[in-house]
Amino acid sequence: MHWENYTSLPEKFRNQRVFDGCGIAGFINIDGKKDDGSKIKDMLTILNERENGLGAGFAAYGIYPQYKDYYALHLLFDDETSKLDVIDSLSNIGLVVQSEPIPTKTPSNVDNPPIVWRVFFDPKEKRSISQDEQIVQLVMEINEKFKGAFVMSSGKNMGVFKGNGWSQEIAEYYKIKDYKAFMWLAHSRFPTNTPGWWGGAHPFNLLNTSVVHNGEITSYGTNMRYLESFGYKCTLRTDTEVIAYLFDLLSRKHKIPVEIASLALAPPLFEEIDKLKDIYQIALKNIRATYRSAMLNGPFSVVVGFSDPIPTLIGLTDRKKLRPLVVGISEDENTVYMSSEEASFKRLMLEPNNKFSFKEIWHPKSGTAVIASLETGLIRDGLEKPFEKTKLTIKGV
Questions:
Q1: With b meaning 16 or more CB within 10 Å and e meaning fewer, what string describes 282-311?
Q2: Which is the catalytic residue, given 6, 7, 21, 22?
Q3: CATH number, domain at 188?
Q4: Count of the separate structural domains present in the chain
């Protein structure tokens, strides 16, 4: 896909780079109740001072129950030729269960949109690798080798909707209010140092992992080379891509619990590690040594959603908290919210149709993950020390 085709804003806006910008938001309903896109839209669009019209997007989990056993490929195409090339290729290597346009606003409210398409797919071919790994390889191949094509998302029972425009415009273009999901993520503005194109908007996704990011990953080169040693191909022209792939590598391929994966990506400073019990020091230093090339440096705050095996929402900032993250839990303790600003929560409290209040709103510690999952609820509130209030066990403790 050629990003130049979809940079439709005036030159002065294309070159605008607001380094402390980006609005991020997300929530998970612990009981699995599905909310339509109105709430996440309100949470994101209130952060309009954090965006510059260069891009926005949403990730929704639980939206395709009728196709929950198939991979939902959300795709962008330059033209009909690129679309037919990809769909023909999919038909040759697996079962295309359903192939259709993603519903959008007609007439379009955004300039020069690409073809937005979805395919529900089953890689029926039996191979020595898992179906998930087959899909990962497929996504890498399409993004790298198929001219005019890009995979927005590739998970089951979920999808990413993103593109060039203001958050309000993208929400209307994809008819976000028509989808119902138990977990939502959202992002406004655009990657800091990369060109404005549809595929480069957030969220970034691989299988059931989606990431929205505010900040800049200065370790991108190291992270990229590390990922490429495991077969990942970073072709999307943005630092955020590595975060999604790293979460997939650690949690899916290496089967590391999310608490440990979060520590690997944003480990405590050595001066903080030295203050802990000896057994914790050994564990953390081993994590740092093993995954030193996966560590994220630079100012960042991220909200991550994944659903393998349990739908989970994660919030994480850099170790100095150079980018903001705010967390809230509803009065009934059923919904955990995350955002780059408390304004997202206040917007919900002012909505006449949302008659609820927050039990608590707090700012997690720097470099400390907030984790909430379906049924289990709030696992970590981001105020703990490493390994505190966790069910994980370390040999010798």
A1: ebbeebbeebeebbbeebbbbbbbbbeeeb
A2: 22
A3: 3.60.20.10
A4: 1
